[in-house]
UniProtKB/TrEMBL annotation:
The keyword Zinc applies. This is CCHC-type domain-containing protein. Residues 378-391 form the CCHC-type domain. InterPro entries: PolX-like_BBD, Znf_CCHC, Znf_CCHC_sf. GO terms for molecular function: nucleic acid binding; zinc ion binding. Keywords: Coiled coil, Metal-binding, Zinc, Zinc-finger. The keyword Zinc-finger applies. Gene3D superfamilies: Zinc finger, CCHC-type. Residues 97-124 form a coiled coil. It comes from the Eukaryota.
Length: 541
């Protein structure tokens, strides 16, 4: 073979880029097979074959030679001049293909081509910064993969001379930026990412950033989240802060889409190690809604003024009521009214997390200490200084505190077993007071539900409950976790929406599924219609 391509065909030639296009063109011309398999030697030059070859076989061989010449011309016409000159002596399309592949498939040739790409790398006029940075990152990554990482100085020098004219005013500021201590090409790329989308304002914004970093370095303190040991993280944090500052709900955007964007940014802050404060999240949510929600803003502010409200509560309210901004204010007013009543009546201890006493009366509260050194407020005798478990006073078996707590409980003269699920047609929600029933539970979900007697109780989560029915595992979805009720509740209106139906005959109740098959039969009793469900508890899965 005349050509010797041990050092590669040419720095201008990229076999990996050229070969798919060449193959397509050869296939379109019907000559790809001859490139793959080659042409057999001339049978007339082989004595054993020359005497016996048939005219048909000789004609087929000649057609194969014609196809080979055609394929060779197609390939040579698609090569750069520098490669064509090196391969002009090649007489076979298969030999040329194999030679090009071999000469450009070694690591040295690939590395030379990559260095050539870096040398020619320039940002096009009008090219988005995001696309340019993607091209830069791809080249840097390929150097790294081939275990020949490019030096910081080389990358920085290329980045500073590869920008178009619109960035001329930014170049001196970028050079000043790179004089700061301990910066690498990654920091320069982050500066491009943060400020490069708007070349007209980039110099001013970048100078502000430089001043922040300078002050942080001189003070030896983290400044605005800046950590000199991890500048990449700090650049990301600044970008997040900028995104959060600009976050607004678009006109016509669905509430689900907007909340998804909000939660994504909150999660990014948390993952960065600098979680955003509750006050900042609430303030942003109340000031970033689009104009159709103007009438709802005052009611949302009233809601967030209630005790112990968190961003999760506000997000939950927006998710539930935000799909219809025109009816949202009135629905929110009713919700705020019921929630205010619930919070006013609710007994809750933040120390031991129980509902049967207040925090100031808790035995475990270290601040509740009387003059004699005793702790707690006894619900047995009503005196301060000890807890009911330590009380020796049995004169009043039903003290005022106990009666007061009992008044606050839901009035129900019946008792219910844990496996009983009462079916009600007047409620819109499935509910249970048993946390252990949930196979999945979102404790961030908060709200209030009004019971049939007018009382409002707090919802502390939502999730799924699984149970076995006739050997089949089934799931009740979106069950509310309501610790202060005393029974499990199934909403038949929810079941009806899923195609279930109910028939009453005498005292017997038959419930059919969406296919019309009998789901369950049960008897109506004084407590109502009850099902016995074999719930699969969380720890028995």
């Amino acid at each position: 073979m005349a050509a010797n391509l041990q050092d590669g065909v040419s720095d201008d030639f990229d076999y990996e880029h050229w070969s798919p296009m060449a193959e397509t063109r050869l296939m379109e011309n019907g000559v790809w097979d001859v490139v793959q398999n080659g042409v057999s030697p001339n049978p007339t030059k082989i004595p054993q074959l020359a005497a016996t070859i048939k005219a048909v076989d000789l004609a087929q061989w000649r057609n194969r030679v014609i196809e080979d010449n055609k394929a060779l011309k197609i390939m040579q016409s698609s090569l750069p001049d520098s490669v064509f000159r090196k391969t002009i002596s090649i007489a076979s399309s298969k030999d040329l293909w194999d030679l090009l592949k071999k000469g450009n498939d070694n690591e040295e040739a690939k590395l030379r081509r990559l260095e050539k790409q870096l040398e020619k790398l320039m940002m096009y006029e009008g090219e988005p910064m995001e696309l340019y940075l993607k091209r830069v990152e791809e080249i840097i990554e390929r150097f790294f993969v081939w275990e020949n990482p490019i030096s910081d100085d080389k990358v920085i020098a290329k980045l500073l001379i590869s920008l178009p004219r619109s960035y001329d005013d930014s170049i001196p500021v970028l050079k000043e930026f790179m004089t700061l201590p301990d910066l690498t090409h990654r920091d320069l790329l982050k500066a491009f990412e943060l400020f490069g989308s708007h070349p007209e304002t980039m110099p001013q914004e970048l100078m502000k950033f430089i001043n922040i970093l300078r002050k942080a370095h001189s003070d030896r303190l983290p400044c605005s989240g800046y950590d000199k040991n991890n500048p990449n993280k700090d650049a990301k944090l600044l970008r997040l802060e900028k995104q959060f500052e600009k976050l607004m709900m678009y006109d016509g955007e669905s509430m689900d889409s907007y909340l998804e964007r909000v939660l994504d940014i909150i999660e990014q802050f948390r993952a960065s190690g600098y979680p955003i404060s509750d006050d900042d999240v609430i303030a942003k949510l109340l000031t970033s809604l689009s104009w159709p929600y103007d009438d709802a803003i005052p009611v949302l502010e009233e809601l967030m003024n209630l005790p112990d409200m968190t961003p999760h509560d506000l997000l939950g309210v927006l998710e539930i009521h935000g799909s219809h901004p025109e009816t949202m204010p009135q629905g929110l007013k009713d919700f705020v009214k019921s929630l205010r009543k619930a919070k006013a009546e609710q007994m809750w201890c933040g120390v031991c997390k129980k509902y049967n006493h207040y925090q100031e009366d808790c035995y475990y509260n270290p601040r509740v200490v009387n003059l004699s050194g005793g702790r707690g407020h006894c619900f047995q005798c009503g005196e301060i200084g000890h807890y009911a478990r330590d009380c020796y006073n049995t004169r009043n078996l039903q003290p005022a505190a106990t009666l007061q707590a009992r008044k606050r409980e839901v009035k129900d003269c019946f008792t219910y077993d844990e496996d009983m699920w009462m079916i009600y047609t007047t409620t819109e929600n499935h509910m249970t007071p048993y946390e252990k029933f949930f196979t999945s539970l979102d404790r961030t979900y908060r709200g209030g539900v009004q019971l049939s007697d007018g009382n409002v109780v707090m919802v502390e989560g939502i999730g799924d409950v699984k149970f076995m029915m006739k050997g089949v595992k089934m799931t009740i979805m979106d069950v509310l976790f309501v610790p202060r009720i005393n029974k499990n509740v199934l909403s038949f209106s929810r079941m009806k929406k899923r195609g279930y139906s109910m028939e009453m005959e005498g005292g017997e109740c038959t419930i059919r599924d969406e296919a019309g098959k009998i789901f369950v039969k049960t008897m109506r009793e004084k407590r109502g219609i009850a099902l016995r469900l074999q719930v699969i508890e969380r720890y028995s899965l």
